[in-house]
Every structure is written in C-alpha cells, then in structure tokens.
Specification:
Chain lengths: 258, 371
C-alpha cells in the first residue's frame, strides 16, 4: 500500500511517498509553501519520479501551515503530530523533536513508546525561527547556507541581547558599525536562536534522544549552540526537513489500514 | 426548542447594546460591572440594571493613550469602548480592585470617560477573616453611597430579596453547567452564549430562560460523547476560538472560566443582615486566580473536576498579559502532569484576528489525547 504525506510549510513544500508504512520510496522538496503552486508541483514531482499515479495512492494526508487549503489531500493533521511520528520513524529511540521552521519553533516530547506526551509552540514572534535567520542574512548580505561555515571561524561570538527580531536587527547593524567581525556576529545570531529555542525545549521537558527537524536543522551553528545550551547531543538526519511529510504519510497509512 | 433557546442567548450575547437600549427605554438605569466580581446584588436591589462590561474584540487605538501595550486587552478594550461611546447612557461603572490592571483602569477611566462615573470597589486580599469581611462590607457601603448619588435608594429588605434572586440564578447556572456536561451536541459557541448573555440580562429574566433550557435538555437524549475537556481561563468568548473547539470535536464538560462558572460557584449565605451576608459571600469565594489564597485550592479543583467529569484533558486559555492567571498556570500544569491529565496552553487576547496557531495547538492536543 502506498501513502502520500505532504508538508506545506511557510517557505517550502515537501512530499514523501511511503510503501506499507515502512519504506520511503520517493521524496520531493520545492521552495515555496502556502499560497504558491509549489505544494501541487511537489506532489506531481514525487509521483512522476516514482512512476506512480494518484490512483495508486491509498491515502494522502496534508500537514503544515497550508494544510487547510490544499484540495488534493484526503485529510489533514497538525504538523506537530507529524513531526513526532516522522522523527520516530527515522530515529526509533527518539524522545524529543525540536522543529525550527521558517515561521515558528516547536518542541515535541514523546513517551518511551513513541506517543506524543507534551508539546510547546513559540508565540506569535519571529525570534527563534528561520525568519530571524533570514532577516539577519539579509542585513549581512549573505546566503543563509553559508552561516554554518562562517560561524565556525568565530573566536569571540557577539552577544545579541535582544530576542525580538526587529530590535535584534538594529542591534546587529550597530555591532557591524562598531566593527564586530562578521563571523562573530553570525555565531552570536545562531546562539541567540538556540537560546530562545532551548528555553522552549526546557518548558516542554526535553529529554534525550533529541533530534532537530525543519529547515534550520541544516544549520550546524544553531545545532551546536542548541546542543551546548541544552547540554544534550542533538541528532540530525538528511531527512530532517521531511519529518512532517514522513509523519503525514505514516498517519495516512495508519488510517488506511484501519 | 433547545436550539431556539440558544438562539435567544446568542442574540443577547452578541448585541449587548440593543439590550442596554431596551432597558434604558424602559426607564431603567444601567450600571456597568467590570471583571471580575462586583456586588451586583447591591446594584440590583437599588433599582439599577447591572450590565457586564468585559470589553470586546475591537482594535485598540484611543486606549493606548492611557495604557502601555503590555496590558490585558480585556481592560484595554473596556476603556476603548468607553472612550468611543459604546457604553453611552450607562449611569456608572463599578470597577473592583482585584488585579493591578483593574486598578489602573479605574484611575484612567476617571479621566478618559468623564460621562460615566467610576465607582471603585476595593476588596481586601485577606477576605476570609472577620476583619476582611468587615473591609469588604465597608467597600460595599462606599458603593452604596456612590449609587445613592445617582438616585438609588438602599434598603436592607430589598437587598435580601436581590440576594435571593442572585442565589437562585447561581443555582440554575450551576445546574445548567452540569446538564451541559451530559450533552456533547451543545457546542462551545452555544455554551459561551449561555454564560455571556447572563451579563446583559436582569438575573430574574435570565434565570427563567435557563430554567426553560434545562427542562428541554433534560428531556432530550444526549448525543454520543466526543472529546470531553475542561477549559480554564478568564474569558473564552472569541467566536473563532469556539468554532475551532467545535470543529475539532471538543466537548466542554466543565469550565474554570472567570466569565463563566466562576461567577456562580458561591451563594450569599443566610443571615439577618443582608449586606453582612453579601460580604461573607465574598469571603467564602475561592478557586480563582484573582482571589488570594496561599494554598491555591484552584489547582486541585481543576484536577478533581477533570477526574469527576471524566475529562480527557485541560485546555488553559490564557489571556495575554494576565499576571494572576500566568502565576497559577505553572501550578496547574504541574498538577495535571502529576495526575496524568494532558493539558495545553493557548494564548488569546481581544485583538486577535488569526487563530491558526491556536488551531494547530488544539489539533495537536486532540491528537495527543486520542493517539
């Protein structure tokens, strides 16, 4: 049985095709999320690449911010539920998922058996999210993908005292004007995100094994700062950005076999 | 018939101005009553119509001239409505001193809304000992004095009668709350209308309508149980919030909401002196974030009620910047965890336009409870 999970985020759309709830047979990721044609394109892409017709798919579940407005799904589930399921699929011993997406951050805590036992979401605030990093990358005129390598060169990370994106933006500009090195600023920016998210994680009762999901999981500097702040190892997987879609495909499978 | 009664509650809950105009046209004087607790019985006994003023979901502009942004939006929206003339025609407003923000509202009201006099009701923190009850009684006497300036006449026998009317309303509301716990088909929105309409009606009128509802519901077979939960907070009347609760299949089997059941938990005790008895009622009140009690019995009340009503979870609806509720939340969360009752926190304010984050939270909570 083939099921499809679609995760429509604020900045990207991800799809996973799952066979019998066990084997990932295809995946796609397109830039552009809710309100764009990327979700449909991502779905068409994964089906085409796997040579599967929509009729072959037993059930499609949609998750993420855009889940309400996607007409090609059979149902929708919250992204937190899906990130928990998807994370556990990739890491069978997983107890905590820290998901830092484009617009928000979430922490999901799982019981020993993998059941979601707690979750915390950030408030309506860009601090501690991918958006914070995007804003900072724009100020520094850098590609966000270069943050990791650049932060690794830092010897004296700058202190970004404000947790508000708007105020932090002014702070970074002031620090630039004061001659603070770019690598130190980037390391400080990543630590700032980590500090905000680690507070959220502690509130949720984070416990090992911990993994990161969402687009920011690819940022090694944030990951390292978060690991240091929580004093816990943080696992990451190349599929980290697909946890939501994997969880949705798994959820679809569980529904389909009922 | 049940739905027709709920339609009446809805009509009144969503059009308080029309309700106020109707009382004014009948030649009655309306006195606004602010959150969280005011001695409505006194107002009622002196011939005034007490009308709840808990603000509204409006954009805040003029109130910002008086308040900083980081203040409870219920209070801010009350001042906004006052400045914009939404309460025009009211003879006065009674504002209690039950939280710091309410204290600032009273002071700002005096300057911002000059045509509606502010009547302070200063409550003691230690309300249970004899000296606390005496303090409350003195506060009530001050309210009476201010109402007399507006043409009201105090009479102990009339207060005793009003106490009786309010006690009857309390009993009916408590009974309605119990009956609703057995009827999952009654939506969160309908439940909210039932409680909200009570603020805008004379209690004897509301009692009659609620009694009718109870009778009808008791003769109706309940639908199959959905997802029973307890809701806690100050205010949960946002239509979008209730729509999400209904869409996700939550059935509110009990509430710990200040604008709902907390209002009706305690009756005025029997006593020769009606005013003394009313002061004793305040002393007897408990289980509320703004009623000081170092033991915090509210926390255990939530856990016990959840168990008693077979609730599968507790939804804490936090009014943004409400310090008393925020202080209690940590204890509630820990107590629920200890009792193995899932709990979630959602944050609301009077200016919210987007409820998607709340939807995601509640959807996840539903999955967490169900999976």
């Amino acid at each position: 049985m083939i099921t499809l999970g679609i995760d429509i985020g604020s900045t990207t759309s991800k799809c996973i095709l799952l066979r019998d709830g066990k084997e990932i047979i295809g995946k796609s990721l397109l830039v552009g999320g809710m309100g764009t044609d990327s979700p449909k394109k991502a779905m068409d892409t994964v089906l085409k690449e796997c040579e599967i017709t929509p009729e072959d798919v037993a059930r499609t579940i949609v998750t993420g911010y855009g889940r309400k407005n996607f007409e090609f799904g059979d149902g929708e589930v919250s992204e937190l539920t899906c990130h928990g399921l998807g994370g556990r699929f990739v890491f069978p011993e997983l107890r905590s998922v820290i998901d830092i997406g484009g617009q928000d951050a979430k922490v999901i805590v799982l019981s020993e058996s993998g059941r979601m036992s707690n979750f915390v979401m950030n408030d309506k605030c860009a601090a501690g999210t991918g958006r914070f990093l995007d804003v900072m990358a724009t100020i520094l005129q850098m590609d966000i993908g270069d943050f990791d390598a650049c932060a690794a060169k830092s010897s004296d990370p700058a202190s970004i005292s404000s947790t508000c994106t708007v105020f932090a933006e002014s702070e970074v500009i002031s620090q630039l004007a004061n001659g603070v090195k770019r690598e130190d600023l980037i390391a400080g920016i990543c630590s700032s995100v980590a500090a905000r998210v680690s507070a959220l994680a502690r509130r949720a009762g984070v416990m090992p094994m911990v993994c990161m999901s969402g687009g920011v999981a690819k940022n090694g500097a944030v990951r390292r700062a978060l690991s240091e702040s929580l004093d816990m190892e943080i696992a990451v997987d190349p599929l980290a950005q697909y946890f939501g879609a994997i969880g949705a495909a798994l959820y679809a499978y569980r529904q389909a076999i009922k | 018939m049940v739905n027709e009664i709920f339609d009446q509650f809805h009509k009144i809950a969503t059009a308080p101005r029309a309700q106020m105009d109707s009382y004014l046209q009948q030649g009655k004087k309306v006195v606004l009553t602010s959150p969280v607790y005011t001695p409505e019985e006194i107002l009622h006994s002196m011939g005034f119509v007490p009308m709840g003023a808990w603000g509204a979901d409006v954009e805040l502009n003029r109130s910002k001239e008086y308040f900083p942004a980081f203040l409870c939006s219920i209070v801010q929206s009350m001042l906004e409505l006052g400045i914009n003339g939404a309460y025009k025609g009211a003879s006065a407003i009674v504002i209690p001193s039950l939280c710091d923000t309410l204290k600032t509202l009273g002071e700002n009201w005096k300057y911002a809304v000059k045509d509606i006099p502010f009547i302070p009701m200063t409550y003691p923190q230690h309300r249970k000992p004899a000296y606390g009850i005496a303090y409350t009684k003195a506060g009530y006497e001050r309210v009476i004095h201010d109402l007399e300036k507006l043409g009201g006449k105090f009479d102990a026998a009339a207060l005793a009668e009003s106490n009786r009317i309010y006690n009857r309303h309390n009993q009916v509301m408590r009974r309605a709350e119990e009956v609703l716990a057995n009827h999952p088909e009654i939506t969160a929105a309908q439940r909210s209308d039932l409680f909200k309409s009570a603020f805008f009606m004379l209690k004897e009128e509301h009692t009659a309508l609620v009694e009718q509802l109870i009778k009808e519901l008791e003769g109706t077979a309940p639908a199959a149980e959905n997802l029973p939960v307890i809701v806690s907070g100050i205010l949960t009347d946002a239509p979008q919030l209730n729509a999400i609760m209904d869409e996700l299949g939550f059935h509110i089997v009990a509430d710990d909401v200040a604008a709902q059941s907390r209002q009706y938990r305690t009756d005025v005790p029997e006593g020769e002196d009606a005013l003394q008895a009313l002061a004793e009622k305040f002393g007897n009140m408990d289980n509320c974030s703004v009623l000081y009690n170092v033991e915090k019995p509210r926390v255990q009340w939530i856990v016990d009620t959840a168990k008693e009503r077979n609730a599968k979870g507790v939804i804490v609806v936090m009014t943004k910047f409400c310090d008393p509720e925020e202080f209690d939340y940590v204890m509630i969360k820990k107590a629920c965890e200890k009792a193995d009752i899932p709990a979630t926190l959602i944050e609301v304010d009077r200016q919210m336009k987007q409820f998607e984050q709340i939807r995601t939270n509640l959807e996840t909570f539903r999955d967490m409870v169900n999976m």
